[in-house]
Write a structure and sequence with these properties.
The chain is built from 2 helices and no strands. It has 60 residues and is mostly helical. The longest helix is centred in the last third of the chain and has 29 residues, at 30-58. The radius of gyration is 14 Å and the shape is elongated.
Length: 60
């Protein structure tokens, strides 16, 4: 898998995790919900950074 394929896979997984957490927020225990939410925030933020880097690197 190429570098762009890895980035696309990471972006899809991070957004899917965030969507699943939003959909299942009522059925998760509070302690687990906090750590999963922090993980999702970090992953989605890193995804946006990787998307920006790939857009700026595409012109080179």
């Amino acid at each position: 898998m190429t570098n762009s394929g890895s980035i696309i896979t990471f972006v899809l997984v991070s957004f899917c995790l965030a969507i699943i957490l939003i959909m299942k927020k009522d059925s998760l225990p509070a302690q687990m919900k906090r750590y999963l939410a922090l993980l999702a925030i970090v992953m989605v933020s890193l995804s946006f950074v990787l998307i920006l880097i790939s857009f700026f690197g595409a012109g080179v």
